[in-house]
Design a protein that fits this description.
Helices cover 19% and strands 27% of the residues. It is an alpha+beta fold. The strands form four sheets. An eight-stranded mixed sheet has the order 1-2-3-14-6-16-5-4, covered by helices on one side. It has a three-stranded antiparallel sheet with strand order 13-7-15. Strands 9-8-12 form a three-stranded antiparallel sheet.
């Protein structure tokens, strides 16, 4: 099965045309899709009729799915799927994690083994808003001014799910409370600030405003200023692709090379998504320059 690859952004992101993910892919077909995804960083498959079991099966071919710490928002019968949703159960309780991702971040970077990839399927979308923005962290690193690159060369940064918890809240919805068992699963971790993609060999900046809170072995004032400069540089317009959702899109991104954030929308309309995340290895430190 041949497919077309249509570029969506100036530097990265692409649409894969001619693939029906409701049917299993051969090893050859899967290998071609995998290569196209990692090269583009972000790919979308349009108009997919994707049952939860098929989404999980497709994700599992890339690696082991991660069961998210927010267990109250997992799809019954399919714990590999996190519901990103503003819909409510009949008793008024939230069906999904409504406030997820409205800040720049890389999925699960607060774990020793951050998510390699994420697959998000659009079950229901609002008529406007709720877009997803992506920043190309390969381009961010390649265009980093020399003084900033020298300051991060060989360094590591600290990541935490809860350290920036309140700052990441939005006016549309508060952050749901964590139970004791959920808090016990979460630890602060250390990752290289420049990581090498073990599949492509490419290097990318690996810090994000959502979960990165400190540069190791650096004073707080200097660390905060350095991270702020890196975040500002990474989110310049030239590094951004904006995905405007269509019903039944399956959007896939490589957390090793991009970070992302969702935009707001009118909560009078439903936004209901199924997300799978795929475990990766421990980030590999890029060679020092």
């Amino acid at each position: 099965m041949a497919f077309e690859l249509n570029r969506l952004g100036d530097r990265f992101a692409a649409e894969i045309v001619g693939v029906d993910l409701s049917q299993p892919l051969s090893d050859e077909e899967f290998g071609a899709v995998r290569e196209a995804w990692f090269e583009a960083g972000v790919v979308v498959f349009r108009d997919q009729r994707l049952a939860p079991a098929r989404q999980v099966a497709f994700s599992r071919r890339f690696g082991e799915p991660i069961v998210h710490v927010m267990s109250q928002f997992l799809l019954p019968g399919h714990p590999e799927i996190l519901l990103i949703s503003n819909k409510k159960h009949p008793d008024g309780k939230p069906m999904g994690f409504e406030d997820a991702g409205r800040y720049w971040h890389s999925d699960i970077s607060y774990d020793e083994r951050p998510a390699m990839g994420s697959h998000l399927y659009a079950v229901e979308i609002p008529p406007a808003g709720g877009d997803t923005l992506f920043a190309d962290m390969r381009h961010a690193l390649a265009t980093l001014p020399g003084d900033l690159r020298r300051r991060i060369d060989g360094r590591r940064a600290r990541h935490s799910y809860t350290r920036n918890w309140r700052r990441n809240e939005t006016v549309e919805g508060g952050r749901p409370a964590l139970g004791a068992g959920q808090r016990d699963r979460l630890r602060e971790v250390s990752h290289p600030m420049v990581r090498r993609n073990e599949d492509t060999g490419e290097e990318a900046l690996f810090v994000n405003p959502g979960f990165t809170f400190a540069v190791e072995d650096m004073g707080e004032v200097e660390s905060d200023a350095l991270l702020a400069a890196l975040f500002e540089h990474s989110t310049r317009e030239e590094s951004i692709y904006t995905h405007e959702w269509r019903p039944r899109d399956l959007l896939c991104w490589d957390n090793r090379t991009v970070m992302h954030r969702a935009t707001t929308y009118d909560p009078a309309h439903a936004r209901h998504m199924h997300r799978t995340t795929i475990a990766g290895g421990r980030p590999v430190q890029a060679a020092r320059r």
